[in-house]
Amino acid sequence: MARRSKNQLSLQVLKKFRIIFGSVRQHFREVEQTCGVTGSQLWILQEIWKTPDIGVSELAERLSIHQSTCSQLVEKLVARKLIVKERSKEDQRRVGLRLTATAVGILESAPGPAEGILPEALQTLPESALLSLDKSLVELIGQLRIRNDKLADKHLSDL
Q1: What is the mean predicted confidence (pLDDT) over 94-110?
Q2: What value does the mean pLDDT of the chain take?
Q3: What domains, with CATH codes, occur in the chain?
Q4: Residue 1: its pLDDT value, please?
């Protein structure tokens, strides 16, 4: 491929990343303006609504974030009285999470999807496209001069 056309192609790809990142940021701004919570907090509320009494470990797994990050987000929501922690009657070591009425109201007024527009869009892709995209992104990440793998465990709205 000629140098000029490879340069043009890399710029076209760069523009697509800008569209993705900008659209994601716009969605999270809308969530925060409408609901008063961040995108990651909204997703947490949705997961607790879907599975009352969920624990922090399972919640972190569902959001694909580190457990300590999830714990910090949960504590902020507890402090805002959007989540309550309850010990299991069967196993006092287990703490489950439940929504308050205020949190349910936030979910009802929230612009969807709660998990964010990028995870939703990725879910709609065929498996072959996801595999190809994953392979290409691994190659791209390998070319980065500065790389922080810890960011993989953070929610996009918290970057």
Answers
A1: 93
A2: 92
A3: 3-158 (1.10.10.10)
A4: 67
Chain length of the chain: 159
What are the contacts of 29-32 at 24+ separation with CB within 8 A? 30/111, 31/110, 31/111, 31/157
End-to-end CA distance of the chain: 35
Find tokens 């523009």 and name the residue.
Answer: 15
Return the pLDDT at 87: 84
| pLDDT of res. 2 | 72
Q: What tokens were used for 112?
A: 């969807």
pLDDT at position 55 is 94
Cα distances (angstroms) measured from residue 125 to each of 15, 80, 99: 20, 36, 32
Paired tokens of 71 = 């714990």
Q: Say how many C-beta atoms besides its own lie within 10 A of residue 109's C-beta.
A: 9
